[in-house]
Amino acid sequence: MTETQSTHMESTAYDVVVLGAGPVGENVADRTRAAGLTTAVVEGELVGGECSYWACMPSKALLRPVIARADARRVPGLRQSVQGPLDAAAVLAHRDEYTSHWKDDGQVGWLEGIGADLYRGHGRLTGPRTVTVTGSDGGRRVLTARHAVAVCTGSRAQLPDLPGLAEVEPWTSREATSARSVPGRLVVVGGGVVATEMACAWQALGSRVTVLVRGKGLLNRMEPFAGELVAEALTEAGADIRTGTSVKSVTRENGTVLVVTDGGDRIEADEILFATGRAPRTDDIGLETIGIEPGAWLGVDDSLRVTGHDWLYAVGDVNHRALLTHQGKYQARIAGAAIAARAAGEPVRAEDWGAHAASADHSAVPQVVFTDPEVAAVGLSLAEAEQEGHRVRAVDVDLSSVAGAGLYGDGYKGRARMVVDLEDEILRGLTLVGPGVGELIHSATIAVAARVPVARLWHAVPSYPTISEVWLRLLEAYRDA
């Protein structure tokens, strides 16, 4: 079954019903089907979700030529060949290919291949273990779940409460990743991952970018030097970054956006992007029918089961544990295994680091910010570790001191910080900033998740000459401190 177009109420029973067919919902369905459970998936938009069409894939397709050109310009003998502007039309066309031109045929085929049934339409809970799907033709279908309903509806951009903002038609992350042309002037409001990545992409594609940050700097949830190095590079590229600045009003007249800041500055632009946070897509999925406030983040245990409801799971962004696609997919694998175990009457291993516990969400969450320079981090920052009461030491290394960095390109700038727990002598976190560091973060993730002792890390020898030699430099700095 690929689509329901029913003009009257029908009811169908499944073992599992999944609300949302993004990467998280797809992975829950994959695991429950692999366990032999009949599974229905409900989706009101495109199968593949936010990541495939308006987030991870299109944003990285926009950023890849930006970063590749920046890397090439650091290499003697090559930089002279890449001094011209990017071919914006070609970049946007490549982005369109990566989003399958916003068509989901391939992902629908994948769902069919695993044996899941897809229902297109708006799905709402209408009681315990019950989901009613309203199709585009108004027809409704009732789905009942013998074992579990998994809410995988993700999150949406949260816009500030500014008078008349809707009439301005501002960009959110969706418009920023799917725009058909390059705006001459772009104002970016926010200082997080979406703001920095989109500022980097559109500045390189030809926009004159102004970034307005309410706080002290960019990427304020990471080590301070991460935001500082990204801000320095964006400024060198031509962006105007203003910290300690809020938007007081925004209007659009004759196609021009006028932004007035709390400091009285007036900025004109062709488009304005608000990257000011996320809200859960739980406002219209029937939570009130089971005693939960609509629009709420859903609290879960480590098996991703919603508090107080033994049949309801909330997986991915909706539980607010880690708003990252890869963590949502990790949670989906855990939730799928837990649902299957409970359905079979088997023991559920939800203890710390058990087969049915999303333990990594607490201490080993990796993230890469695909700016130039890249930022990669896993685990706790120094400030977070100290706030949690750990006795830790931070060890910093200038990445330009690593032989592999010098070969990567002239003028390499970067920094690494390792946060070591002095009680257990394990890593609590690692942050890397510099060209090419995104591919290094998984080794750090393994070290943090597996709680590898520092003494054991000495025997994990990095290849020479690669940037991964930073591991040796960090360990030497820790030893010699």
Automatic annotation (TrEMBL):
Keywords: FAD, Flavoprotein, NAD, Nucleotide-binding. Coiled coil: none annotated. Binds 1 FAD per subunit. Its cofactor is FAD. InterPro entries: Class-I_Pyr_Nuc-Dis_Oxidored, FAD/NAD-bd_sf, FAD/NAD-binding_dom, FAD/NAD-linked_Rdtase_dimer_sf, Pyr_nuc-diS_OxRdtase, Pyr_nucl-diS_OxRdtase_dimer. One of its GO terms (biological process) is 2-oxoglutarate metabolic process. Disulfide bonds join C51-C56. NAD(+) binds at G190, G191, G192, V193, V194, A195, T196, E197, G277. FAD binds at K60, G123, T153, G154, S155, D317. SUPFAM superfamilies: FAD/NAD(P)-binding domain, FAD/NAD-linked reductases, dimerisation (C-terminal) domain. Residues 365-471 form the Pyridine nucleotide-disulphide oxidoreductase dimerisation domain. It holds the Pfam family Pyr_redox_2. GO terms for molecular function: dihydrolipoyl dehydrogenase (NADH) activity; flavin adenine dinucleotide binding. Residues 14-326 form the FAD/NAD(P)-binding domain. Belongs to the class-I pyridine nucleotide-disulfide oxidoreductase family. This is Dihydrolipoamide dehydrogenase.
